[in-house]
Amino acid sequence: MSKLEDVKINVENGKTKLVPELVQEALDEGNAALDILQAMVNGMGVVGDKFSSGAIFVPEMLIAAKAMSKGVEILKPHLAGDASVSLGTCIIGTVQGDLHDIGKNLVAMMLESAGFTMVDLGVDVPAQKFVEAIKSNPNVKLVACSGLLSTTMPAMKNTVAEIKASGLSGFKVIVGGAPVTETFADEIGADGYAPDAGRAAIKAKQLVAVL
Ligand code: B1M
How far apart are the CA of 113 and the centre of ligand 1, in A? Predict the structure, then answer.
Protein backbone atom coordinates (compact mmCIF):
# COMPACT_ATOMS: atom_id res chain seq x y z
CA MET A 1 0.00 0.00 0.00
CA SER A 2 1.33 3.47 -0.87
CA LYS A 3 1.88 5.99 1.91
CA LEU A 4 -0.89 8.20 0.49
CA GLU A 5 -3.33 5.29 0.55
CA ASP A 6 -2.23 4.64 4.13
CA VAL A 7 -2.97 8.28 5.06
CA LYS A 8 -6.39 8.09 3.41
CA ILE A 9 -7.42 4.86 5.13
CA ASN A 10 -6.28 6.03 8.55
CA VAL A 11 -8.21 9.29 8.19
CA GLU A 12 -11.25 7.20 7.25
CA ASN A 13 -10.71 5.10 10.36
CA GLY A 14 -10.16 8.12 12.60
CA LYS A 15 -6.66 7.18 13.76
CA THR A 16 -5.84 10.52 15.40
CA LYS A 17 -2.42 9.46 16.71
CA LEU A 18 -1.31 7.63 13.58
CA VAL A 19 -2.39 10.16 10.93
CA PRO A 20 0.13 12.92 11.90
CA GLU A 21 2.94 10.35 11.89
CA LEU A 22 1.89 9.04 8.48
CA VAL A 23 1.60 12.55 7.08
CA GLN A 24 5.15 13.29 8.27
CA GLU A 25 6.39 10.03 6.73
CA ALA A 26 4.62 10.87 3.46
CA LEU A 27 6.38 14.27 3.43
CA ASP A 28 9.70 12.63 4.24
CA GLU A 29 9.19 10.26 1.29
CA GLY A 30 8.93 13.31 -0.96
CA ASN A 31 5.16 13.37 -1.54
CA ALA A 32 3.79 16.83 -2.37
CA ALA A 33 1.83 18.47 0.46
CA LEU A 34 -1.16 19.03 -1.85
CA ASP A 35 -1.24 15.33 -2.75
CA ILE A 36 -1.22 14.36 0.92
CA LEU A 37 -4.03 16.85 1.57
CA GLN A 38 -6.02 15.35 -1.30
CA ALA A 39 -5.54 11.86 0.18
CA MET A 40 -7.05 13.11 3.45
CA VAL A 41 -9.93 14.86 1.64
CA ASN A 42 -10.58 11.59 -0.24
CA GLY A 43 -10.65 9.78 3.10
CA MET A 44 -13.26 12.24 4.35
CA GLY A 45 -15.24 11.63 1.17
CA VAL A 46 -15.42 7.94 2.04
CA VAL A 47 -16.46 8.86 5.59
CA GLY A 48 -19.29 10.98 4.14
CA ASP A 49 -20.41 8.15 1.87
CA LYS A 50 -20.38 5.67 4.77
CA PHE A 51 -22.43 8.12 6.83
CA SER A 52 -24.93 8.54 3.98
CA SER A 53 -25.35 4.77 3.69
CA GLY A 54 -25.82 4.34 7.45
CA ALA A 55 -22.60 2.34 7.88
CA ILE A 56 -21.24 4.86 10.39
CA PHE A 57 -22.73 7.59 12.60
CA VAL A 58 -21.88 11.11 13.80
CA PRO A 59 -19.23 10.04 16.40
CA GLU A 60 -17.21 8.23 13.72
CA MET A 61 -17.45 11.30 11.45
CA LEU A 62 -16.25 13.46 14.33
CA ILE A 63 -13.26 11.22 15.06
CA ALA A 64 -12.30 11.15 11.37
CA ALA A 65 -12.50 14.97 11.34
CA LYS A 66 -10.15 15.09 14.35
CA ALA A 67 -7.70 12.78 12.60
CA MET A 68 -7.73 14.96 9.50
CA SER A 69 -7.24 18.15 11.55
CA LYS A 70 -4.19 16.59 13.24
CA GLY A 71 -2.79 15.71 9.82
CA VAL A 72 -3.41 19.24 8.52
CA GLU A 73 -1.41 20.64 11.47
CA ILE A 74 1.64 18.75 10.19
CA LEU A 75 0.99 19.87 6.61
CA LYS A 76 0.33 23.51 7.44
CA PRO A 77 3.92 24.81 7.15
CA HIS A 78 4.22 23.02 3.82
CA LEU A 79 0.95 24.36 2.41
CA ALA A 80 1.05 27.95 3.58
CA GLY A 81 3.28 30.22 1.51
CA ASP A 82 5.30 33.07 2.91
CA ALA A 83 3.15 36.09 2.13
CA SER A 84 5.28 39.12 1.43
CA VAL A 85 2.32 41.36 0.55
CA SER A 86 -0.39 42.68 2.85
CA LEU A 87 -3.87 42.49 1.37
CA GLY A 88 -5.80 43.72 4.41
CA THR A 89 -8.03 41.94 6.89
CA CYS A 90 -10.30 39.00 6.07
CA ILE A 91 -13.18 38.02 8.33
CA ILE A 92 -13.96 34.31 7.96
CA GLY A 93 -16.51 31.99 9.52
CA THR A 94 -18.86 29.08 8.99
CA VAL A 95 -22.44 30.32 8.78
CA GLN A 96 -25.08 29.97 11.49
CA GLY A 97 -26.29 26.44 12.21
CA ASP A 98 -23.23 24.82 10.64
CA LEU A 99 -20.46 23.21 12.70
CA HIS A 100 -18.14 22.05 9.89
CA ASP A 101 -14.78 23.77 10.06
CA ILE A 102 -12.09 21.73 8.30
CA GLY A 103 -12.72 23.29 4.89
CA LYS A 104 -13.08 26.75 6.44
CA ASN A 105 -9.75 26.29 8.25
CA LEU A 106 -8.04 25.27 5.01
CA VAL A 107 -9.46 28.32 3.25
CA ALA A 108 -8.27 30.53 6.16
CA MET A 109 -4.80 29.01 5.87
CA MET A 110 -4.58 29.67 2.13
CA LEU A 111 -5.92 33.22 2.47
CA GLU A 112 -3.39 33.94 5.20
CA SER A 113 -0.59 32.68 3.02
CA ALA A 114 -1.91 34.88 0.19
CA GLY A 115 -1.38 37.93 2.42
CA PHE A 116 -4.59 38.50 4.39
CA THR A 117 -4.65 39.11 8.14
CA MET A 118 -7.24 36.57 9.25
CA VAL A 119 -9.96 37.09 11.83
CA ASP A 120 -11.60 33.68 12.31
CA LEU A 121 -15.05 33.83 13.89
CA GLY A 122 -15.27 30.03 14.08
CA VAL A 123 -18.40 28.01 13.36
CA ASP A 124 -22.15 28.62 13.76
CA VAL A 125 -21.64 32.35 13.19
CA PRO A 126 -24.80 34.51 13.14
CA ALA A 127 -25.02 37.10 10.36
CA GLN A 128 -24.83 39.97 12.84
CA LYS A 129 -21.53 38.68 14.19
CA PHE A 130 -20.03 39.00 10.71
CA VAL A 131 -21.37 42.57 10.53
CA GLU A 132 -19.96 43.45 13.98
CA ALA A 133 -16.57 41.99 13.03
CA ILE A 134 -16.46 44.11 9.86
CA LYS A 135 -17.17 47.20 11.99
CA SER A 136 -14.72 46.41 14.76
CA ASN A 137 -11.67 45.31 12.78
CA PRO A 138 -9.38 47.64 10.83
CA ASN A 139 -8.92 47.55 7.06
CA VAL A 140 -11.41 44.76 6.26
CA LYS A 141 -11.08 43.93 2.57
CA LEU A 142 -12.71 40.50 2.43
CA VAL A 143 -15.47 38.55 4.17
CA ALA A 144 -15.42 34.78 3.63
CA CYS A 145 -18.43 32.60 4.46
CA SER A 146 -18.25 28.82 4.50
CA GLY A 147 -21.15 26.37 4.60
CA LEU A 148 -21.27 22.57 4.27
CA LEU A 149 -24.94 21.79 4.75
CA SER A 150 -27.71 22.32 2.24
CA THR A 151 -29.88 23.19 5.26
CA THR A 152 -27.61 26.15 6.11
CA MET A 153 -27.59 27.63 2.62
CA PRO A 154 -30.45 29.97 3.67
CA ALA A 155 -28.23 31.14 6.55
CA MET A 156 -25.51 31.94 4.02
CA LYS A 157 -28.03 33.89 1.94
CA ASN A 158 -29.15 35.75 5.06
CA THR A 159 -25.54 36.50 6.04
CA VAL A 160 -24.74 38.06 2.67
CA ALA A 161 -28.03 39.99 2.75
CA GLU A 162 -27.34 41.39 6.24
CA ILE A 163 -23.79 42.36 5.32
CA LYS A 164 -25.03 44.19 2.22
CA ALA A 165 -27.92 45.79 4.15
CA SER A 166 -25.51 47.10 6.80
CA GLY A 167 -24.35 49.76 4.36
CA LEU A 168 -20.71 49.00 5.20
CA SER A 169 -18.35 49.12 2.24
CA GLY A 170 -14.74 48.74 1.10
CA PHE A 171 -14.70 44.93 1.09
CA LYS A 172 -15.87 41.99 -1.01
CA VAL A 173 -17.78 38.89 0.06
CA ILE A 174 -16.68 35.40 -1.04
CA VAL A 175 -18.66 32.23 -0.33
CA GLY A 176 -17.97 28.52 -0.69
CA GLY A 177 -18.41 25.02 0.67
CA ALA A 178 -19.58 21.72 -0.81
CA PRO A 179 -23.25 22.57 -1.55
CA VAL A 180 -22.46 26.11 -2.77
CA THR A 181 -22.27 26.81 -6.50
CA GLU A 182 -21.34 29.82 -8.58
CA THR A 183 -25.01 30.20 -9.52
CA PHE A 184 -26.07 30.21 -5.86
CA ALA A 185 -23.33 32.72 -5.03
CA ASP A 186 -24.60 35.02 -7.79
CA GLU A 187 -28.22 34.57 -6.68
CA ILE A 188 -27.48 35.62 -3.09
CA GLY A 189 -25.41 38.62 -4.18
CA ALA A 190 -21.95 37.40 -3.13
CA ASP A 191 -19.05 39.02 -4.99
CA GLY A 192 -17.19 35.78 -5.48
CA TYR A 193 -17.25 32.01 -5.19
CA ALA A 194 -14.55 29.35 -5.07
CA PRO A 195 -14.89 25.57 -5.05
CA ASP A 196 -11.80 24.88 -2.94
CA ALA A 197 -9.20 26.50 -0.71
CA GLY A 198 -6.57 26.99 -3.40
CA ARG A 199 -9.00 28.68 -5.75
CA ALA A 200 -10.44 30.74 -2.86
CA ALA A 201 -7.02 32.38 -2.45
CA ILE A 202 -6.78 33.10 -6.19
CA LYS A 203 -10.33 34.51 -6.32
CA ALA A 204 -9.76 36.58 -3.17
CA LYS A 205 -6.69 38.24 -4.67
CA GLN A 206 -8.65 39.04 -7.84
CA LEU A 207 -11.54 40.47 -5.80
CA VAL A 208 -9.47 42.82 -3.66
CA ALA A 209 -7.43 43.98 -6.65
CA VAL A 210 -10.55 45.47 -8.23
CA LEU A 211 -11.84 47.27 -5.13
CO1 B1M B 1 -21.19 16.44 8.46
N2 B1M B 1 -22.16 16.36 6.79
N3 B1M B 1 -22.88 16.60 9.47
N4 B1M B 1 -20.09 16.34 10.06
N5 B1M B 1 -19.77 15.90 7.34
C6 B1M B 1 -21.38 16.31 5.55
C7 B1M B 1 -21.10 17.72 5.04
C8 B1M B 1 -22.32 15.45 4.61
C9 B1M B 1 -22.10 15.74 3.11
C10 B1M B 1 -22.14 13.94 4.95
C11 B1M B 1 -23.04 13.07 4.12
O12 B1M B 1 -24.21 12.93 4.45
N13 B1M B 1 -22.54 12.48 3.06
C14 B1M B 1 -23.74 15.87 5.14
C15 B1M B 1 -24.35 17.12 4.50
C16 B1M B 1 -25.44 16.80 3.49
C17 B1M B 1 -25.96 18.07 2.93
O18 B1M B 1 -26.47 18.90 3.61
N19 B1M B 1 -25.82 18.22 1.62
C20 B1M B 1 -23.45 16.09 6.61
C21 B1M B 1 -24.44 16.02 7.64
C22 B1M B 1 -25.82 15.61 7.20
C23 B1M B 1 -24.15 16.33 8.99
C24 B1M B 1 -25.12 16.33 10.17
C25 B1M B 1 -26.49 16.97 9.88
C26 B1M B 1 -25.25 14.88 10.66
C27 B1M B 1 -26.24 14.68 11.77
O28 B1M B 1 -26.10 15.20 12.86
N29 B1M B 1 -27.25 13.90 11.48
C30 B1M B 1 -24.34 17.13 11.24
C31 B1M B 1 -24.62 18.63 11.16
C32 B1M B 1 -24.00 19.38 12.30
C33 B1M B 1 -24.02 20.87 12.04
O34 B1M B 1 -23.17 21.37 11.33
N35 B1M B 1 -25.01 21.54 12.57
C36 B1M B 1 -22.93 16.87 10.80
C37 B1M B 1 -21.85 16.85 11.68
C38 B1M B 1 -20.55 16.58 11.33
C39 B1M B 1 -19.42 16.46 12.35
C40 B1M B 1 -19.50 17.52 13.44
C41 B1M B 1 -19.51 15.09 12.98
C42 B1M B 1 -18.16 16.51 11.41
C43 B1M B 1 -17.54 17.93 11.27
C44 B1M B 1 -16.37 18.17 12.20
C45 B1M B 1 -15.61 19.42 11.82
O46 B1M B 1 -15.73 20.01 10.76
N47 B1M B 1 -14.79 19.82 12.77
C48 B1M B 1 -18.74 16.16 10.05
C49 B1M B 1 -17.96 15.74 8.94
C50 B1M B 1 -16.53 15.42 9.23
C51 B1M B 1 -18.50 15.61 7.64
C52 B1M B 1 -17.81 15.10 6.36
C53 B1M B 1 -17.67 13.59 6.47
C54 B1M B 1 -16.46 15.70 6.04
C55 B1M B 1 -16.42 17.23 5.97
C56 B1M B 1 -15.00 17.68 5.72
O57 B1M B 1 -14.33 18.13 6.64
N58 B1M B 1 -14.48 17.51 4.48
C59 B1M B 1 -18.84 15.54 5.24
C60 B1M B 1 -18.84 14.62 4.02
C61 B1M B 1 -17.93 15.13 2.93
O62 B1M B 1 -17.47 16.24 2.92
N63 B1M B 1 -17.73 14.34 1.93
C64 B1M B 1 -20.06 15.81 6.03
C65 B1M B 1 -13.11 17.79 4.14
C66 B1M B 1 -12.96 19.29 3.82
C67 B1M B 1 -11.53 19.62 3.42
O68 B1M B 1 -13.78 19.56 2.70
O69 B1M B 1 -15.34 20.98 4.11
O70 B1M B 1 -15.91 20.38 1.69
P71 B1M B 1 -14.91 20.70 2.73
O72 B1M B 1 -14.12 22.01 2.26
C73 B1M B 1 -13.62 22.19 0.95
C74 B1M B 1 -14.62 22.86 0.00
O75 B1M B 1 -15.97 22.66 0.34
C76 B1M B 1 -14.19 24.29 -0.02
O77 B1M B 1 -12.79 24.24 0.20
C78 B1M B 1 -12.49 23.19 1.11
C79 B1M B 1 -11.12 22.60 0.87
O80 B1M B 1 -10.64 22.72 -0.40
N81 B1M B 1 -14.72 25.28 0.90
C82 B1M B 1 -14.71 26.59 0.57
C83 B1M B 1 -15.20 25.16 2.15
N84 B1M B 1 -15.51 26.36 2.64
C85 B1M B 1 -15.21 27.26 1.70
C86 B1M B 1 -15.31 28.65 1.69
C87 B1M B 1 -14.90 29.34 0.53
C88 B1M B 1 -14.42 28.66 -0.57
C89 B1M B 1 -14.31 27.28 -0.58
O90 B1M B 1 -14.94 30.68 0.43
C91 B1M B 1 -15.23 31.44 1.58
Answer: 23
